[in-house]
Amino acid sequence: MSSTTGRKRVTERHYSAEEQALDQISKEAEARIQARRAARAEAREIRLREIAKQQKEEEERLKTQEADSGKSLSSYSGSRRGSDESTSTDTDLRDKDPKDAVRQYKSMLRDYEEKYKKAMSTNAQLDNQKHTLVYQVELLKDQLEEQEESMIEVQRQYKDKCREFENQKRSFIDLEFQYNGLKEQMSYRDRFLQESGFTVVSTEEGMLKLEKCSTMTNGPIIPQGSLLVSDEAAEMLAKAGEGSLDDKLRKFLEEKKRLLEEIKSLQKDIEDERSKKDKSPKVPQMNGPEMQLYEVQREASKQIHEYKLKLQKAEQDIGTYEATVNRLEQQIKRYKFDAEEAEKTEDELKTEKRRLQRELRDSQNQVEELQNQNKHLKKRLEKVKQTRSALLNFNE
Asked: Which residue stretches does the UniProt record annotate as biased composition, category Basic residues (predicted)?
């Protein structure tokens, strides 16, 4: 019994260490997921601030370009008015200076237009590249989220497999423990049979169930099962010939009755002979049937003692099994609690996923609004270009 309790303590310590390791792994995984979520939210906020900042810079740049174009046109018209006034006062400068100034302004305006066109083309290219990169970044984010979700699913499956493996391992250990116990019981039974000189005799049906040997009575004997008998009894049953065990025992009972009647008649004859002879009082001696009865009683007391030992061992085994059942019930309760916690975590993850999807839809709506604003600004820029070209044509 001490060996069984020692094995039980070792297995319990082993189980507690494995459970602590699994709990530690799950806590670390949850901490990593929370850190990823926080980093993702922070990156999202930074990205939104950058987009707002770029939008403001773009608006300010467009405003400055519009102001510069207005100033250039006003300066050009002012120079024309100044040249007209100068022509009215000075006839010599009217033929030379205004034309040179107009040519110079036209050349400068062409240079500015070329530079402006180049800047706008580069701006458009950069804008296209920016949109392409933003789209690629969004795709990569979606792929990353999908991979994280798949990784979480794989981790959950891994935890389930680990739990299943631990359950199978515990059940294997329990079965191995039961197997060792049954093996010890079988070896004890074989040793007991070998020491006591008994053997197992099966009936014609071939059933090998062991039954306690009862005293021989005149009642019916169950033909099924096996009986634990001595080697001599087995030889006697073999010499009894063919037939069922009931028939063999009936023959033995009839023969026993006949022998008892003969013994009684012989005892009666002996008593008659002794009474006839006037001898000294007889001293009771243990011989004949009395000796056999004493042997039977001693054998019965021996078997009773052995059955008591078996009963004590069975009670000890029952106590061990009850402790194992209690431990398994505690494990089942703990597994149920873990399953409930996992379901709660799954619900929280689902709500988090729905929230992220809502944020994604809001971000997409914001992107669409920004694209519409960009189109509107491009249209305004085209109108400014057309107005400017019309003014240039009018001045020429």
From this structure: 1-11
> Cα separation of 287 and 273, whole Å?
19
Nearest alpha carbon to residue 138 among 268, 264, 51: 51
Q: For 285, phi and psi rounded to 5 degrees?
A: -120, 150
112, 395 contact by CB (below 8 A): no
**Greatest alpha-carbon span in the chain:** 197
Pick from 199, 201, 179: nearest CA to 190: 199
CA within 13 Å, CB half, 88: 5
Cβ neighbors of 128 (< 8 A, separation 6 or more) are: none
- Output b/e per residue, 256-285; b: 16+ Cβ within 10 A: eeeeeeeeeeeeeeeeeeeeeeeeeeeeee
CA distances from 53 to 50, 82, 137, 156 (A): 5, 43, 18, 41
Q: Minimum mean pLDDT among 19-23, 80-84, 331-335: which range?
A: 80-84
∠ at Cα 238 (233, 239), nearest 5°?
95
* Residue 224: predicted pLDDT: 42
